[in-house]
């Protein structure tokens, strides 16, 4: 364990992360999206936020969260469907089969559309709310169940001068 | 058993909204023997309901009903359906706030006189002086347990503060952990902070003052208050004499009620208070209640709020500990040599990964964003709250779209004033310079998030033609209608508004109780 090792926690009152199968059968958990829509949205999320160190499953969980949103709100479902049509229509090859530079250019070409905005904002909303992503980037999450940080490093930064007591 | 009042009891004061203004006023009136019905649109939650989770807390506490936005402000682009933010829950936005407690300075209460004529700005002086307000600031600080007042020590330095401190010292700035309504030691039956960093999702331990954990329980204990949660007010009615006579609201089951009232106090934050007044039209008040001079909804302010996030070589772990426990006051005073009017507080800011990612630069994607957010552990945040210029066209209006209760959805229009933009530029440079002096590798100038310091829009003024309210927050045109939220501010000042809202509510309670005793209210 190095000095920066942390353990991330979700609040115990919240539901645990979705446990997805590792293979292509992960799309079986989806309520609204078909496999093509789902895999296209995973490719989009990955292109928008291409973290080399994150496994594919965090992007899939992000799309599972999109699917739950779409199941609750038909207008949102429509927005995701429009997004897939837009990105698939941009090139003679489906979006999910494009190379990275073409995927980036395709997304740049539709940045002003509500469908792009929906996918980009939703990706930020759910990707960075994922426990595995928290763990990877050093965010520890819920703390009250462990007594906060008062005895767990709220003032452990030691590479700058210590402020005087009572400042 | 909670006291209950009959719907036809015209002897009660009805307060709409249970946050810093309404919740405090309910307690202060009840303490003085006044019978109060407190209507709150949100649920009555307990600390056990709250979560240590940024989005979970946001979704639990926020007023999520649709609003629209127009104007040049970034919120219209970044947050077009939620440009302004407040809470819908018993305790209002005090369930969320980060508890910075600073007082207005004298110049800020005389903005028109001190700043002079500024083109496009509708500045006025406050109808209250600092000398009149100071005794109430004293009372507010005591009840809220503000650090560095009443013998309470300041909050201890945390990791993010160490960064701010190092930079500020290198630049010769006056830096401290500031003043907060968060217990640094046990106070008033509430514990010291455990530094969990989740003050803004409800505060499970109660170390931070809120009306939910202090004012409302004490008001209920007097036997003079009836709290009605999940009561969504849709209209304020008046009698033939033009006095407020009743409040119409819809309960959790969707049933509409009419509560009669001796006096009505609106405390629903700028957007909802203005919306209610504008919607409460009648033959006598064709443009909305108390809007004869056309000021309702106008001169809306939201402060110059922005954050700089910086990346350092080594871990900061900014999420550990109280999130805004740092303050620099060198730029608070009005100084014409800076090239703009008004000043700003520099404060600390920290966020968890979910909201840092969301607010760093909404709309930003690609490898550059990724390279920044991956260094979350090494990030520090520094923040400012500065004075924005009142403008008559910056206003809350009603749209043609109706909400689920049949009340028009509000639009918030805000154009940045040139003075605002000058202050923003000055502030960003200062914030980045502080982090650079502490060794930042890269700084990101993040835009404002949805407005949380909602002010003005129903302002107090010395003359009826200049505002909606007199110096006691009483409508010039409706003698038993009051407002007790930030919408009453004549100008915005620079500091976080809650302490002033609480002080004004205590002062208003004194005034209302006196008028009642004199048989004049």
Total beta strands of chain B: 17
Class per helix and strand makeup of chain A: mainly alpha
Measured as a percent range, the helix fraction of chain B is: 25-40%
Architecture of chain B in CATH?
Answer: 3-Layer(bba) Sandwich
Report the sheet-strand fraction of chain B.
15-25%
Q: Give the overall pLDDT of chain B as a whole number.
A: 97
Rough shape of chain B? Answer: globular
Characteristic terms for this protein:
heterodimer; A: 167 residues; B: 521 residues; 17 strands
How would you characterize this protein structure?
The complex is a heterodimer of chains A (about 170) and B (about 525). Chain A has helices at about 35-50, 55-70, 75-90, 100-110, 115-125, 130-135. Chain A is mainly alpha-helical. Chain A has a domain at about 25-130. In chain A, helix 2 crosses helix 5 (about 115-125). Chain B has helices at about 20-30, 55-60, 75-80, 105-110, 110-115, 130-145, 160-170, 210-220, 270-280, 355-360, 365-375, 420-435, 500-515; strands at about 15, 35-40, 70, 175, 225-230, 230-240, 245-250, 255-260, 265, 305-310, 325-330, 345-350, 380-385, 395-400, 410-415, 440-445, 480-485. In chain B, a hairpin with a 5-residue loop joins strand 7 (about 245-250) and strand 8 (about 255-260). Chain B has about 525 residues and is an alpha/beta fold. Chain B has a six-stranded antiparallel β-sheet, covered by helices on one side. A five-stranded parallel β-sheet of chain B has the order 5-2-1-9-17, covered by helices on one side. In chain B, strands 3-15-14 form a three-stranded mixed β-sheet. Chain B has one domain (about 15-515): FAD/NAD(P)-binding domain, CATH 3.50.50. Chain B is built from 13 helices and 17 strands. The mean pLDDT of chain B is about 95.
Helix and strand layout, with pairings?
The complex is a heterodimer of chains A (167) and B (521).
Chain A: H1 35-48, H2 56-72, H3 74-88, H4 100-109, H5 114-127, H6 131-137
Chain B: E1 13-16, H1 20-31, E2 36-39, H2 54-61, E3 68-70, H3 74-78, H4 106-109, H5 111-115, H6 130-144, H7 159-170, E4 175-176, H8 211-221, E5 225-228, E6 232-238, E7 244-250, E8 256-260, E9 263-266, H9 269-279, E10 304-311, E11 327-328, E12 344-348, H10 353-359, H11 367-373, E13 379-386, E14 395-402, E15 408-413, H12 418-437, E16 442-446, E17 481-483, H13 498-517
């Amino acid at each position: 364990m190095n000095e920066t090792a942390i353990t991330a926690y979700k609040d115990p009152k919240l539901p645990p992360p979705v446990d997805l199968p590792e293979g292509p059968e992960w799309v079986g958990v989806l309520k609204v999206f078909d496999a093509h829509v789902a895999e296209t949205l995973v490719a989009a999320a990955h292109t928008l936020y291409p973290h080399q160190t994150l496994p594919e499953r965090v992007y899939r969980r992000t799309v599972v969260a999109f699917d739950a949103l779409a199941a609750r709100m038909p207008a949102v479902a429509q927005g995701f469907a429009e997004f897939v049509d837009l990105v698939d229509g941009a090139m003679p090859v489906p979006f999910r089969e494009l190379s990275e530079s073409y995927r980036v250019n395709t997304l740049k070409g539709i940045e002003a559309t509500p469908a792009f905005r929906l996918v980009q904002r939703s990706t930020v909303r759910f990707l960075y709310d994922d426990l595995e992503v928290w763990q990877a980037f050093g965010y520890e999450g819920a703390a009250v169940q462990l007594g906060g940080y008062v005895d767990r490093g709220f003032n452990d930064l030691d590479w700058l001068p210590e402020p005087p007591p009572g400042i | 058993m909670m006291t209950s009042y009959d719907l036809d009891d015209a002897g009660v004061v009805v307060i709409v909204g249970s946050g810093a203004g309404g919740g405090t006023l309910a307690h202060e009136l009840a303490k003085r023997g006044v019978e109060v019905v407190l209507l709150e649109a949100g649920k009555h939650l307990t600390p056990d309901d709250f979560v240590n989770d940024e989005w979970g807390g946001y979704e639990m506490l926020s007023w999520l009903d649709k609003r629209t936005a127009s104007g040049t402000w970034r919120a219209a682009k970044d947050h077009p359906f939620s440009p302004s933010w407040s809470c819908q829950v018993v305790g209002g936005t005090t369930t969320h706030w980060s508890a910075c407690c600073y007082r207005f300075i004298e110049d800020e209460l005389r903005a028109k006189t001190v700043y002079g004529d500024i083109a496009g700005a509708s500045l006025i002086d406050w109808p209250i002086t600092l000398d009149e307000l100071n005794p109430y600031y004293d009372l507010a600080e005591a009840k809220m347990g503000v650090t560095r007042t009443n013998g309470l020590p300041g909050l201890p330095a945390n990791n993010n503060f160490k960064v701010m401190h190092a930079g500020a010292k290198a630049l010769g700035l006056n830096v401290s952990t500031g003043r907060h309504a968060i217990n640094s030691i046990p106070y008033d039956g509430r514990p010291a902070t455990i530094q969990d960093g989740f003050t803004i999702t409800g505060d499970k331990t109660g170390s931070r003052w809120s009306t939910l954990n202090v004012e409302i329980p004490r008001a209920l204990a007097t036997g003079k208050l009836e709290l009605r949660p999940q009561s969504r007010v849709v209209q304020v009615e008046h009698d033939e004499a033009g006095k407020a006579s009743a409040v119409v609201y819809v309960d959790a089951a969707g049933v509409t009620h009419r509560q009669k009232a001796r006096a009505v106090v609106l405390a629903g934050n700028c957007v909802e208070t203005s919306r209610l007044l504008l919607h409460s039209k009648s033959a006598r008040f064709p443009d909305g209640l108390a809007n004869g001079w056309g000021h309702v909804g106008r001169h809306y302010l939201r402060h110059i709020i922005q954050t700089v996030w910086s990346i350092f070589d080594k871990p900061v772990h900014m999420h550990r500990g109280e999130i805004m426990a740092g303050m620099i006051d060198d730029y608070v005073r009005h100084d014409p040599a800076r090239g703009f009017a008004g000043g700003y507080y520099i404060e600390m800011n920290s966020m968890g990964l979910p909201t840092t990612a969301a607010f760093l630069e909404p709309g930003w994607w690609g490898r550059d964003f990724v390279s920044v957010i991956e260094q979350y552990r090494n990030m520090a945040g520094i923040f400012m709250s500065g004075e924005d210029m009142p403008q008559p066209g910056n206003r809350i209006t009603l749209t043609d779209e109706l909400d689920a209760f049949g009340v028009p959805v509000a639009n918030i229009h805000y154009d940045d004033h040139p003075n605002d933009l000058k202050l923003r530029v000055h502030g960003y440079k200062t914030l980045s310079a502080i982090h650079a002096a502490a060794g930042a590798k890269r700084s990101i100038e993040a835009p404002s998030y949805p407005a949380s310091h909602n002010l003005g829009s129903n302002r107090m003024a010395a003359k009826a033609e200049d505002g909606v309210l007199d110096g006691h927050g009483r409508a010039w045109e409706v003698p038993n209608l009051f407002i007790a939220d930030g919408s009453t501010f004549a100008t915005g000042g620079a500091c976080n508004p809650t302490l002033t809202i609480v002080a004004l509510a205590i002062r208003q309670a004194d005034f209302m109780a006196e008028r009642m005793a004199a048989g004049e209210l």
